[in-house]
Amino acid sequence: MNIIIEEMSLNDLENIKNILTSEFDDFWNYDILKEELESENSRYIIAKLGNEIIGFAGIKIILDSADIMNIVTKKNYRNQGIGTLLLQNLISICKKSNLTSISLEVNEKNLHAIHLYKKFGFKNMGIRKNYYKNQNGIIMFLGTE
Ligand SMILES: CC(C)(COP(=O)(O)OP(=O)(O)OC[C@H]1O[C@@H](n2cnc3c(N)ncnc32)[C@H](O)[C@@H]1OP(=O)(O)O)[C@@H](O)C(=O)NCCC(=O)NCCS
Fold first, then answer.
1. d(CA 23, ligand 1 centre) in Å
2. How many angstroms separate the CA atoms of 55 and 73, rounded?
3. Which residue of 11, 53, 109, 138 has the smallest Cβ count within 10 Å?
4. For residues 57 and 79, what is the distance between their CA atoms, to the nearest angstrom?
5. CATH number, domain with residue 45
6. CB 101 within 8 A of CB 143
């Protein structure tokens, strides 16, 4: 697969607006993503196959660290390396921007995502109880220096 990683634009968001929850995931919504894309402190990227957006991911920068806000692969392209490619690119953006750490919060039941983060060296830093309705969130951290 010839996947291209590009910075995500508002136009890209418009392109996937109608399939955001059905074909990507139902956690995020259009308004929040639009706000994120318009924020100076956010960096979002997309994975493209031809003209099709098959994944996106983004960080919010707070001082010298980044929070991963989202990383999602279109449902019918999962388990083919797209998530790995997106995360690799986010980490490299953080390193190039001289950010010293990356953190994130993930649902404890989201084993695929946890596996992906651990693959890149993220460590569990703690649990946030009942963060996702009745499920706990795991806080993960990666030092990038
Ligand atoms: C988490 C997510 C982004 C992973 O994306 P992906 O494109 O499937 O990721 P990859 O194909 O690069 O796979 C990453 C790892 O997870 C494993 N994996 C992914 N899907 C899997 C599946 N269905 N069964 C078994 N393992 C799986 C892969 O084997 C791979 O590990 P490996 O490199 O050791 O083999 C994707 O599942 C997703 O979009 N989930 C919904 C949104 C979400 O929960 N995001 C995280 C929020 S914190």
1. 15
2. 4
3. 11
4. 16
5. 3.40.630.30
6. yes
CA of 119 to the centre of ligand 1 (A): 11
DSSP state of 54: E
Query: pLDDT digits over 54-80, tens only?
Result: 999 999 999 999 999 999 999 999 999
Residue 53 CA to residue 71 CA, distance in Å, equals 13
Q: Where are the beta strands (DSSP E) in 11-143?
A: 42-49, 52-62, 65-73, 101-107, 123-132, 135-143
Work out which ligand 1 atom sits closest to the CA atom of 85.
Answer: 12
Regarding pTM above 0.90, the answer is yes
Q: From residue 135, how far is each of 21, 90, 100, 110 by CA, in Å?
A: 21, 27, 29, 10
